[in-house]
Amino acid sequence: MTHSRIDRPDGYAPGVGALLAMMEDCRGRTLRLVEGLDSAHIDEATPWHGNTPGSLLYHLAAIELDWLYAEIMAKDFPEEAWSWFPHEVREEDGRLTPVLGDALERHLDRLAWVRDRMREELQSLSDEDLQAVRQTDGGRTVTPEWVFHHLMQHEAEHRGQLGEIMASRGT
Hints:
Layout: H1 14-34, H2 53-72, H3 81-84, H4 104-122, E1 134-135, E2 141-142, H5 144-168
Antiparallel strand pairs: 1-2
């Protein structure tokens, strides 16, 4: 029988470490999925979906960075973030901004850079901090604990879209 468990990383409050371990599991699933993605297809949109794999990967990284700094840590983005994110996340009509021309490796490096920021920032967070109430720009009230849940759900949903795109291409 295989047992699954959450292995909390050292250097974090227990609850924070558990949530980070869950985030890492979620990201590992995404990375394993895109291992088979042919770089030639990174900018190809499907007729039924409209988003490219590259645009989805960019979006995952951008949203994680935004929630990390705006709601979990409640502080400004690091200055170097702008070199990783030259595009707005969405167009005026609400659709994801097409992010074209970046190789798969660039998208993976971007995801890794954001996750490294998360690992670094979360070391200062206590389990009590997970319950701190935050107000989003849209007027919504959230806690950092809920943000972790949201980010994992968000990534899982977009991973499903990536899987559909890849399956349609036979990858």
